[in-house]
Amino acid sequence: MTADHPSQARPGRLQVAVIGGGIVGLITTLGLLKRNIAVKVYEQSRGFREIGAGVAFTANAMQCMALLDPHIVDAVNAVATPNGEDMDKPNDYLRWHDGYHWDPEHPETSDDKLLFTLYSGYKGFQGCHRAHLLDELVKYVPSGVVEFRKRLTSYEDRGPQERLLLRFEDGSTAEADAVIACDGIKSTVRRILLGADNPASYPHFSHKVAYRALVPMDQAEPLLGSFKARNQHMHTGPGAHLLHFPVDGGKLLNVVAFATEPGDWPLGGTNTVGNMTAPATREQVAEVFRGWGPTVRNIVSLLPAELDRWAIFDTYDHPAPTFVGGRVCLAGDAAHASSPHHGAGAGIGVEDALAICTLLARVKETLQAEEAVLKAGLIEKALRVYDRVRPPRSQWLVQSSREVCDIYEWNYPSTGTDWDKCLAEITARSHKLWYFDIAGMLAELDRGYEKMKNLQLAPEVASDHHPSAE
C-alpha cells in the first residue's frame, strides 16, 4: 500500500484496510469505494474463494446492499434464485414440514405433513451459490484494490500521529488509518484484538454438524416433484432437520442436513479450530434419518456417495466483549459468527458493513471540514459508536440461531411439538431479523457520531454537555 507520510499530512484522506476478501469483505469494500474512501483488501489465499454452497439474503439485507452500493444488488440479482417454480413469480412463503412422522400404510397422505408457512415478503428469500456471488462482486472491484497471499500476522498502533502498521507472513508491511476485519470465523484480527489466551478469540463447537451438497435439479425434480424441488422446505424432526432450496437459476438444489454431534469435534483442540470439515458418506446421512418419512429419505438418496460433514462453530459460548480496539474493528463472522439456522449470518454482516461505511463517511466529511482535527482520535470515536450500536442485535442472532435450531428439532422447552407455539416463536424471531429498522440504525449511528465528534472538536465543552457520550 502506498501511504501518505506523515499520516496527518492530508487530514481529509482516509486509507482503510479490509482484512479478508470474502462476501462481507467485498461488500464492505464496495461500500467504502462508493463513498470515495480509499481501501485496500488483503486476502490470504491465492485468489477469491468461498467455502460452502448456498447462501440466502432477505429483502432487508438487499435494502442495506442498495444503500451501500447498488452494484451489490446487481451482483446478487445476477446469481440469485427466487423461491418457486416460476422465477418471475416468486413464492414468498417459507414452509416447515413434519419430516419424521408417517404411516407406512398411507404414505401418500401422511408423509411430510405441512406444519405451517411464513410469508417472507416479496423476494424475501433468494438463494445464491456462494462462489457465483463472489465472482459477481469481484467484477465491481477496481484492479489494484485487492492483494492476495497476504496473511496478516500482527498490527501495531504507533500513536495518534501515525497510521496503523500491518505486518504479513511474507515479511511485507502496509499502513492504514483504520482496519476492518472481515476475516471470518477463524479471524486473526479477533485473536490479536482480544488476546491469544482469551476463549472469546476463538469460535467453539455447537455440537451440530451439517452435511452439505448441491444436487442437479434434473435429478431432484423427478423424485421430489417440481413444487417440492423448486421451493424452500424445512423438514423437521427429533434431533435433526433437513433444509433445501434452489440455487444457480434453478439448476441446482442446495441440500443441508443437520444432525447432533454430542462429543467434541475431533479435529479441533484448545484455543484452536483446526479443520471444520471431515469426509462423510451418504450412508452416514441415511443413518441419521433412518425411520424418517419417504420424502426426507428420498432427498438423502440424492446426495453424492461421498460428501463433507461440516462442524458448526459459533461464538455463542464465548461472545466477543467488544468489536473494536482503537482504530480496528470486527465485522461479520469475525465479530459474531453464528450457527446457520436463521440463514441470516451474511445478512447481519451486510448490516455491519453499512454501519461501518456510514460512520467512516462521516469521519471523512468531518476531516475535510475541520482540518485541525486529529484523524486517529476521530476514527476511534466513530468506531466506538459502531461498538455500541451493532453488538446487541448481532449477539442476539447468535443466541437465537441456537434456539431456533432447538425449535426445528423439537427440543425447545417452551414449544416442543406444539406447532402453534413453534410458529409463533419462529415468526417473532424471523420478523425481528427481516423487518429491521435500517433507518433507525442509521439515525442512531448519526446521533452517536455527532456526540463523539463534539468530544473530539471541543473535549471540555462536549464532556460537560454529553456526559454519556463516552
UniProtKB/TrEMBL annotation:
GO terms for molecular function: FAD binding; oxidoreductase activity. Keywords: FAD, Flavoprotein, Membrane, Oxidoreductase, Transmembrane, Transmembrane helix. Pfam families: FAD_binding_3 (PF01494). The chain crosses the membrane at residues 12-33. SUPFAM superfamilies: FAD-linked reductases, C-terminal domain, FAD/NAD(P)-binding domain. Residues 302-374 form the FAD-binding domain. Belongs to the paxM FAD-dependent monooxygenase family. This is FAD-binding domain-containing protein. It comes from Thermothielavioides terrestris (strain ATCC 38088 / NRRL 8126).
